[in-house]
Write a structure and sequence with these properties.
alpha/beta, 4-stranded mixed sheet, 3 helices, 4 strands, 26% helix
Length: 126
């Protein structure tokens, strides 16, 4: 993740004052806890804008690979968040089981990959 100040500066360069908020961890594997902490730092630099976190495959965090890493898990279930922070919701932005591309034995980017979908579900910590 970019340094919070760098992220805030980039958002401000595109007219972010008109945006409702921002999204983090989209199609990625960073933990919810890390994403929340980072999001709060960025939000503070943006006047308290809200944010959402994609938890569709972050249940085991990152193993350093970005493209179809194995051993990952579904993260927190999608839900609205109302806990006095700037986190508005946990979402599954990327459909669990959607391939990142042909790396690590996957099908084309965006294609359904049944084996990985089942692996994400089996590895979930609910």
């Amino acid at each position: 993740m970019a340094v919070p100040q760098t992220a805030a500066n980039r958002l401000n360069q595109i007219g972010f004052q008109y945006a409702v908020g921002f999204a983090l961890n989209t199609s990625n594997y960073q933990t919810t806890a890390d994403s929340r902490a980072y999001g709060e730092q960025v939000s503070a630099l943006l006047g308290g804008k809200g944010f959402v976190v994609d938890t569709s495959r972050n249940g085991n965090g990152s193993n350093g690979e970005w493209c179809n890493p194995r051993g990952r898990a579904l993260g927190d279930r999608p839900a609205l968040v109302d806990d006095a922070t700037h986190l508005d919701a946990l979402l599954w932005v990327k459909s669990p089981g959607e391939s990142d591309g042909t790396c690590n034995g996957g099908p084309a980017a965006g294609a359904w990959w049944q084996d990985v979908a089942l692996e994400l579900a089996r590895n979930a910590h609910w």
